[in-house]
Amino acid sequence: MTMRATILDIKSVLAPSASRVVRSEWAILVAILLVAAVLRLAALGDVPPGLGYDELQDARLSEHILAGKWAIYFPDNSGTEPLYPALGAFSVRLLGWSVIALRLPAALLGILAVWALYLAARELAGRRVALLAAAFQAVSFWPLIGTRPALEDSLLPPMAALACLFLARGLKQPGGGWRVWLNFAMGGLWLGSQVYAYTAGRVMPFFPLALILYLLLLDRRTLRLHAPRLVTLLVIAVLVAAPMAFVLYTHPEIEQRLDQLSSPLAALRQGDPQPLLQIALGTLGMFTLRGEPQWLYNIAGRPIFDPFTSLFFYVGLMLCLARLRDWRCGLALLWMVVGLLPALVSPPPASFNHALVAQPAVYLMLALGTGAVWEQLNRRWARVELLLAALLLALNLALSSRDFFVVWAHAPQVQELYQGSIGRVAHELDAHDSPGPVAIGAPYIDYWNPWNAVGFDLALRRRDLSVRWFNPAGGWVWPAGSGPTTFYFPHDPLGAQSFDPELQELFAADAVPLPSPSGDFTVFRVARPAALEARLAKFADASLAWPPELSHLPRPAVPLAFGNHLALVGVDLQTATSAPGGKLRLVTYWQVQTADPAPLVAFIHLTSKGQDIWGQQDWLDVRPASLLPGDRFAQVHTVPVKAETPPGLYHVELGLYAPDTLVRLPITSVGGGMADRVWVGEVQVTAKSTP
Question: Which of 27, 102, 201, 220 has its CA 20 to 30 A from that of 438?
Answer without folding.
Answer: 102
